[in-house]
Design a protein that fits this description.
single chain; 251 residues; alpha/beta; 6 helices; eight-stranded mixed β-sheet
Length: 251
């Protein structure tokens, strides 16, 4: 197995990400985590904000050149191999970029929020979007050539990440490609207001080497990690980001 890390940081070192830690009792970090209430909170929260979120991020991808580069590479490496999935697709902007700018015709999108799926259908009717849970996908084994998971794991507790990655690997074909992104950090940020709506959502950050460890535990290999600093404040939240390519063994 190999792991390559490329740094493209535009600001300070990634060991000191900009996102601040919330006020958060230490014992809270070690509480037993039950996924059913978390799923309910996340689905409810995104259902409430789906319309406003979709409008706010409608042209997000156009402003992020590193995303373009990574998505084009993903498209090139999965070309002609089958369906690819935009996992945790939200209103569908990543899958749409793959389809409209990277030449990927066989794109589907999956999200936990039914309202997000409605927004995605309205904005990108040429793509098939379905409601689903990344921890329990209704797909046969070895179904997809690739999965992009852009910030899709940020609501899953650390002790459930390996399970989520294993479920994604299950539905990838042998040799299938995963491209995932996440905010770099060590914090769990709790949000009670999102797009002026009352929600209860935790945003989980990871260190690159930590996520690489989870990927290896889940059975992936050929890991390649790229990190970057944030774009301008008007473009995105001021956190450092990581992109990881990983493969399901077997090709």
């Amino acid at each position: 197995m190999k792991s390559n890390i490329h740094s493209l940081c535009q600001c300070e070192a990634i060991s000191n990400p900009i996102i601040e830690s919330p006020a958060f009792p230490e014992e809270g970090r070690n509480q037993e985590i039950h996924m059913e209430p978390i799923r309910s909170d996340i689905q409810s929260g995104y259902d409430k904000v789906a319309s406003a979120y979709a409008q706010a991020f409608i042209d997000e991808q156009a402003k992020k050149p590193m995303d373009h580069e990574m998505l084009q590479r993903f498209a090139d490496e999965t070309h002609g191999k089958g369906i690819v999935c935009d996992m945790g697709c939200g209103p569908g902007q990543v899958g749409a970029w793959l389809n409209e700018h990277c030449g990927v015709k066989g794109v589907i999108g999956i999200d936990l929020s039914p309202r997000f799926i409605e927004e995605a259908h309205k904005l990108h009717p040429q793509i098939g979007f379905v409601q689903g849970d990344m921890l329990d996908l209704e797909q046969p084994d070895n179904s997809w050539a690739g999965v992009v998971a852009f910030y899709s794991l940020i609501h899953i507790p650390h002790d459930q990440i390996v399970d989520a990655l294993k479920e994604i690997k299950r539905v990838l074909k042998p040799g299938g490609l995963l491209l995932l992104t996440f905010h770099i950090g060590s914090d769990i940020v709790h949000v009670d207001k999102f797009f002026e709506q009352d929600v209860s959502m935790d945003f989980v950050m990871f260190q690159p080497d930590e996520m690489e460890g989870y990927l290896r535990l889940a059975g992936y290999d050929s890991l390649e990690t790229t990190v970057r600093g944030p774009y301008a404040p008007e473009v995105e939240h001021q956190s450092h980001r990581a992109y990881i390519f990983a493969r399901k063994p077997g090709e």
